[in-house]
Amino acid sequence: MLKEVLELAGDRRSEMRNEMIYIAWGGSLVIGPMVVLYLLISSLLSPDTDYDYLLLLSGILAIFYVLTAALGHIFYVRSLRLAQTISYEMRMGLAEKLLRLPMSYFSDKRSGEIFTTLDDYCTLFFIKIMNSTRMIREAVTAMVISAFFLALDWRMALLAFMTFPAIYLTFRRVDRIMTDLTHEGEEATRTFNSTVVEFIQGMPVIKVFNLGKDRMTRFRKAAEDFRDHHVKMIVDTTGPSLQFLLFLSLDIVIVLPFGYYLYSIGEVQSNTLIFFIVTVPLLSDALYHFLYGYIENHGKMAEVLRKVRELRDSPEPTAPSEMIDVNGNDIVFQDVSFSYGDKETLSHIDLVIPAGKVTALVGPSGAGKTTLTSLIARFWDASSGEIRIGGINIREMNMDTLMSKLSFVFQDVIVFDDTVMENIRIGRPGASDEEVIEAARAARCEEFVSTMMLGYQTMLGERGSRLSEGQKQRLSIARAILKNAPILIMDEATVFVDPNNEYEIQEAINELTEGKTVIVIAHRLSVIAKADQIVVIQQGRVVERGTHDELIGNNGQYGKFWDMQTRTRQWHI
Ligand code: ADP
Questions:
Q1: Total number of domains in the chain
Q2: 366: CA distance to ligand 1 center in Å?
Q3: Which DSSP category does 394 fall into?
Q4: Which of 50, 356, 368, 443 gives 508 a disulfide partner, CB atoms 3.0 to 4.6 angstroms apart?
């Protein structure tokens, strides 16, 4: 188990090892009070007890106790600091790993598991490190006491060790049960956490579709499993744990009568007998703390290690580390196919998206338009085929290079609980305040920012609760303007969610798209008709491609859609 702690300690391994050595030294200090105690008992039992000598021994004993307490405190604070640092670094390392993982990793079920790993397990790891340091101290204490016992009188020592085999066997049993149950219990905890995350995230849908009853049934089932496993853990381990405790406390019951027998036949002296009677409970106590610490740590540590390893070793999309220059901004899909699971979502896409032009993706809902744009950003990797930007395969591009090419005005706008200024600066960290304000002005954010009491320094609240949907969209456009990437991917449906802001948003978008390679998942006829290229997607395939006039002339799918939509004035979404 110490090996596991050291493995998870990562770069802090050698610091952790040193800390363990210090703690072991601290534990070995118990030899001092043991020797002094023996001398004290011997002196008390001798016919010519010297009072000054007794005082001296008591003083030395007091010094040892003070020293042990002081060192114990110093080591505790040091270990605490190190354990918190390691746990913090583990959390940060895992969070950075998450950033590198593909979107396919983040299923709904996983959100709860990731939350458990980053929150519970990193905290648990900290607690386990602290437990391990205590176990080391107790183990060394038990060893030092045992060695002193042997040195003093091997027969009395053997009496004190007589319960060890039974203690060991019951300890193994409790440990085995605990490890198995911990594994099951952790599964139940993770499922419960996933259900909670799903429950909270899905609250709007649950309310709108009145799914409360159904979701509560699921929630209840997860909560019941959680409860049952934890009760089972206590019930199943109580019996063996009691046996284990019983054997630990039997020591004195053996030492006392058999020790007295050895004394009565003159084999053992009275001071040795009394010393053993006084100190055997110390040995049991150290053993108890060591073994119980082990049992408590072992199962959970295995779970922590398993889950952390699983996350740490999850395959990342391969990408070179070097930034490269990509001059062109045209995008080429060459025979690209993709599936989320078994079902093929995109089939053999061949498509050229010319630089500096607007390409509108149109087609029925679920056709694969969003998926197609996600592949450009490598949120997912194509199952086959190749996507090139400026003639270079995106898989051969460093992720920073790829991301520097792209901006998104897309789906949900994530607003952080920070100021307006910082929320826009996300578009280009390092941009000056003036640049941020300029982008905000271009995105028509100024109108609403100027009405805020603290202007750009106004905090936006959790999830941007102080902004309307239209304002959030303009904020996201400001980010994209600030980033000024040459390729812009945009979902028009989410951009025009707020009809009150339509004019401002249109102006903001005009600023943003100027001279860019634009891919827009388009819904409004005015946008579609003006696009330089319209790509019609149906059931994961490109079925038509051309300008509005060309496609109308073809009288194919687009012509039919157009007829239908001019009647309803909206593309079906
Ligand atoms: P569109 O943007 O044209 O409406 P999408 O690209 O969003 O279509 O979806 C295409 C298909 O892929 C749909 O059947 C959808 O249910 C499925 N899909 C989309 N996202 C995921 C996902 N994360 N996991 C599994 N299936 C998905």
A1: 2
A2: 6
A3: G
A4: 443
Residue of the nearest CA to atom 21 in ligand 1?
340
- Answer yes or no: do 359 and 435 share one domain: yes
Same domain, 307 and 357: no
Query: Does residue 513 share a domain with residue 486?
Result: yes
Of 280, 312, 344, the position where a domain reaches its end is 312
425 and 305 assigned to the same domain: no
Q: How far is the CA of 340 from the centre of ligand 1 (A)?
A: 8
For ligand 1, atom 1, the nearest C-alpha belongs to 366
Nearest to 139 by CA among 285, 355, 320: 285
| Structure confidence at residue 108 (pLDDT) | 55
What six digits make up the tokens of 173?
């049993």
Q: What is the CATH number of the domain that holds 145?
A: 1.20.1560.10
- Take atom 14 of ligand 1 and give the residue whose Cα is closest: 366
Which pLDDT does position 319 carry in this prediction? 72
Whether residue 320 is contained in a domain is answered as no
Query: What CA–CA distance (Å, rounded) separates 384 from 347?
Result: 9
Which atom of ligand 1 is least distant from the CA of 537? 3
Please identify which residue in the block is written with the tokens 């060890």. Answer: 164
pLDDT of residue 569: 53
Answer with the one of 252, 282, 312 that is the final residue of a domain.
312
Which regions of the chain are under pLDDT 70? 1, 107-110, 411-412, 462-465, 493-502, 504, 565-573
Task: Record the pTM.
Answer: 0.65
| 287, 339: one domain | no
Looking at residue 109, its pLDDT comes to 56
Mark whether 342 and 222 lie in a shared domain: no
- In this structure, the residue with its CA closest to atom 25 of ligand 1 is 340
Rounded distance between C-alpha atoms, residue 191 and residue 186, angstroms: 8
**In terms of residue numbers, what domain contains 476?**
331-569
In this prediction, residue 535 carries a pLDDT of: 93
For tokens 């699983």, name the residue.
Answer: 310
At 124-171, the pLDDT tens digits run 888 888 888 888 999 999 999 999 999 999 999 999 999 999 999 999
Residue 331, pLDDT score: 94
Residues with CB under 6 A from ligand 1: 340, 345, 363, 365-371
User: What local confidence, expressed as pLDDT, does residue 493 receive?
Assistant: 61
Whether residues 500 and 407 share a domain: the answer is yes
Q: Return the structure tokens found at 116.
A: 């458990």
Comparing CA positions, the residue from 260, 259, 516, 489 lying closest to residue 370 is: 489
**Which residue's alpha carbon is nearest to atom 15 within ligand 1?**
366
By most ligand atoms within 8 Å of CB, the mutation choice from 340, 349, 494 for ligand 1 is 340
What does the angle CA 331 – CA 336 – CA 339 come to, to the nearest 5 degrees? 125
Q: State in Å: Cα 568 to ligand 1 middle.
A: 25
Distance (Å) from CA 152 to ligand 1 centroid: 77
